[in-house]
Design goal:
Blueprint lengths: L11 H11 L9 H20 L1 H16 L8 H24 L1
Helix pairs in contact: 1-4, 2-3, 3-4
């Protein structure tokens, strides 16, 4: 019997908070790019830790690139990741339900 893998969904408020943190550099024009240089690897690490697996790894790379590029911070990557993960969970639950029938 195959062991079911539990996929965790991070809280939406945390995802939104991390997306807002990524936009802070817009409010500090002279320090903005320095903040982005520090935030990009931290953001990628947080993304991987929150989502894990393939979604977390791919999202962390995309998030790092997005945070590293100037003027690209507007994309809410954590919130997008939340909804991608939510869809994955829904799909797995549907598949598991069909298998049990």
């Amino acid at each position: 019997m195959k062991k079911e893998k539990e996929i965790k969904l991070p809280p939406i408020w945390l995802c939104i908070l991390l997306d807002v943190a990524g936009c802070i550099s817009y409010f500090l024009p002279t320090w903005g790019e320095w903040i982005d240089a520090i935030w990009a690897p931290l953001s990628a690490l947080f993304f991987y830790l929150l989502f894990g697996g393939k979604t977390g790894a791919l999202g962390a790379v995309i998030n790092f690139v997005e945070e590293s590029l100037p003027f690209a911070d507007i994309l809410p990557m954590f919130t997008i990741g939340y909804f991608v993960r939510k869809r994955e969970i829904k799909k797995l639950n549907t598949e598991n339900k069909k298998l049990k029938e």
